[in-house]
Amino acid sequence: MPTSTVDVMLPEVSRALTSFVGTFASSNTLGGGDAVLDSLEVVNRGYTTADALNDRYVRITSGNNDNEIRRVNDVTVASVTASLALTGSNLLSESGVVNFEVHRVDPYRLVDLLNDARQAIFPRLYKQVEDDSLHTAEGQKSWPVPSSIERGYVTEVRIRRRQSANAIGNNLLQSLNYDMEASDATTDWTGANGAAIAEENETQSPDNYVVFNGQKSLKVTYTTSGTDGTVLITVPDGSNYIGQELNVTLWAYTSLADNISAIIDVDGTATLGTAHQGLGWQKLKVSHIIPIGASTVKVGLNVATGTSVIAWMDEVVTVSGPMEAPRSFEDPIFDWKEVDGQIHIYREQIPRDHQLIVKGQGMLSEITTVGTTSMEIGPAERPMLYWQAAELLSDGRTLTTQQDEQNSVLRGATHYRNKVERNVTGMAPMVMKRGITP
Asked: Which of the following CATH numbers is that of domain 165-320: 3.10.129.10, 3.90.1180.10, 3.30.450.20, 2.60.120.260?
């Protein structure tokens, strides 16, 4: 699906709000001893008087100060150069000139507006989700709606035989204890920060449900310590994958929601995937591009601090490149229904040790100026999101403006609301393969 980055969307939404002043380049290299940007371009563009850009907002978009957002405290013009004195601490030194944007509205506020707009405009704008995290057990008839899909917006359910980790030949952990079947299941794994690990063995009568596959799984007992607990294994020759995307999947069991997730740790810096929903065995995923200079890469399970947790994990797969391994044949399921956040299937028997493939509509991802910096939306849909953001901004201003200005603000809100309504269809909805109840 197409994506758009913060760097693309911020100037565009700022222009939609008539808030964007422009993009400029500095004419000096910053020494790190002040918070001043000198720019010849500012003067060349017509801002020739002192204080011309006072109280505007600068967002630096290159160099060591990339994504730094500051308010303009004072502007002085000497000869053909404008000096913008910014609020806050000294900027980092630079080896060359930097590019920066100037906005009338705080860019942090613009990001908040985009995040509010993605909620207000759903489901006209959405991301298409295909989730394969749910596992079938003997006698099971209902499963939770995956957290990546909004409740009431499951559109299709399919089933396929689960592929065992030992069938994936490009698993980077192939030479290690990725399936917990070593003579000691804890071999190659290290628990830290309150996370203790132990071997869990299969039994037959009754069947030990917390052994996912084979004869063993890894039991994780976390005692909250004020720091996230981790259970990690080191990827062999991790520095060989600099510049490449690593994708990690593992199966985990816990009864507590939002506490455990898959993790990629690069030299102590963690990237976490979506948290477990707390309802049995679930496939967890995380991906990360290994940065330049990386030395040691570890993968495994992260346990969030705050609550003591017992969990189990098994079948850890790490690959470089796309996560899509060869799939077995998938069967569509038609006799299903979504009720109160649960997917109910009305077949007489669901085969065990299979995966449910659930398709649906999810809300566009929340963005920040750093971290999650892209949203699942293309250029054709972005204007609709911006109009929704503008409507929200205008609606908010009606509560804070003086009486004699309210008519103007209300007209602005109505204008943007009409633009949104004229695009009422939004994105074409996915085919709804709704369930058929008996």
From this structure: 2.60.120.260
